[in-house]
Amino acid sequence: MTVWGWLRRLFGRPSGRNDAGAGAVFEATSTWEIAHPRAHAVHIVYAPRRDGIPDAGEVVWAWVPFQEDPSQGKDRPMLVIARHDVQRVFALKLTSRAPKGRDDHLRIGVGSWDRESRESWVDLDQLYSLHHRGIRREAAALDRRVFVQVGRELARRHGWRFDG
Known about the structure:
Number of strands: 9
Low-confidence stretches: 1-25
Oligomer: single chain
Number of domains: 1
């Protein structure tokens, strides 16, 4: 099996864009959707620091692939929940579209990450690995009380460790 085949099996779908902005590519700095989130031992800790390095509890902006077509995607806010390794963090995508009749999203309110001051929800079931170089900017630190709600729900749903 090639290295790329092994990475796809371990992490799931590739994302990223080639220089022309189209086509799925698998690069070390790409955003990876984690195929089986429950299989990972995620340790959630609230630790935001405005230092240019993504930390758990921060909302950052990164390019994320569309689930139905990983060759397409968009720049979107992501909530960092934990460290993945030295160069990567685990994150969940945010949306401003209210989910109707679904229990896989949690309301986190309004924050400075959204210029239009819209309500936001965090997707609890899609886990991503973001490389530091794939993150465009730090947007805000999520309120600690809200992060605790997110952390507790993630621990309940996925069995991850949460130190709240």
